[in-house]
Amino acid sequence: MVLATAAFTAPFPLVVQMDLPVKNAQFAGLLLAEQKGWYRQADLDVTIQSSQAGIDGAKRVASGDNLVGSIESGLFLSARAEGLRIVAVGTMFQASPLCLISFRKTGIAAPRDLVGRHVVVHADGHEALSTVLAKAGIAAGSLRIDEEDYGNEALLSGRYDAQQGYTVDEFVALKAQGLDVVALPLRDYGHIAYSQVYFVSEAFLANHRAELVRFISVSNRGWKAALDDIPGTARMIVERYEPSLSLPYQTQSLREIGKLLWAESPVTSAMRRETWEENLSSFKNSNAGAKLPPMEAWADFKVAVEAAR
């Protein structure tokens, strides 16, 4: 007698292309879901890939198979304007953690305090700062703006009055070192944007929508669990992924992240058309001549809703 055997179906392979070189609290929900085996339970074989020098994450996602990227909304718009056929399908942070960090003694508490100061931003920070200055009625020429790479060396060197950073990252790291620093959150002064936007290629969305929805649903579960147990999640990140990061640093980072995950909606990962329209307006003001197709071509607002079900 021949016994019938059930057909084996391998889990769907999926690579998450991070926009960071380290696996830290900013990806806690995904890292926790991976550790708990929740992706496997949903028939997904997920690999979380750190960013690498010399590799353009947006181009990799646009041209590759079975890839989900993470990107800042302004950088997403820039990539789309360059012709990359990518689609935003959700966002981890519903508000941007972008800020300007300064020592408290410097006295920078509002955009008006930047007049006459020396500020340093990264290559992706000019648009946000320009938007804030314009909305505050401050001429860009009334302060000195330079550009340097990521890290806290610029501020610590004493050469600048304020530096670009994240309220969930550089600012927390400096505070953990016992330094008396303050943050000027740019979202409080007109910089409307998303952070860690999920995006995929047009082809991937068309061919694997069900798998994508499943991935975001499981990731959402991971984010909720991560914020429900901040001490335990922070310890997991340090012990399993990044031993070089301090536990207090990752713990406080998660607390700050909790302020951003549901800043617009109780639906995890959800995006709003109005936010993208505001971000798009700022992007075009800072990138004369940039052209994008209609929003329907590069933003899908239904994926997060489907994942929430």
Explain the layout of strands and helices:
Elements: E1 12-17, H1 28-36, H2 38-41, E2 44-49, H3 57-63, E3 67-71, H4 73-81, E4 86-93, E5 98-103, E6 118-121, H5 126-135, E7 144-147, H6 153-156, E8 162-166, H7 170-176, E9 181-185, E10 195-201, H8 202-207, H9 209-228, H10 230-240, H11 247-257, H12 273-286, H13 302-308
Parallel strand pairs: 1-2, 1-3, 6-7, 6-8
Antiparallel strand pairs: 3-10, 4-10, 5-8, 5-9
Helix pairs in contact: 1-9, 4-12, 5-12, 7-11, 9-10, 9-13, 10-11
Structure overview:
The protein folds into 2 domains: 12-95 and 193-308, Periplasmic binding protein-like II (D-Maltodextrin-Binding Protein, domain 2, 3-Layer(aba) Sandwich); 98-189, Periplasmic binding protein-like II (D-Maltodextrin-Binding Protein, domain 2), CATH 3.40.190.10. The chain is 39% helix and 18% strand. The protein has 13 helices and 10 strands. The protein has helices at residues 28-36, 38-41, 57-63, 73-81, 126-135, 153-156, 170-176, 202-207, 209-228, 230-240, 247-257, 273-286, 302-308; strands at 12-17, 44-49, 67-71, 86-93, 98-103, 118-121, 144-147, 162-166, 181-185, 195-201. 44% of the residues are buried. The model has no long low-confidence stretch (mean pLDDT 95).
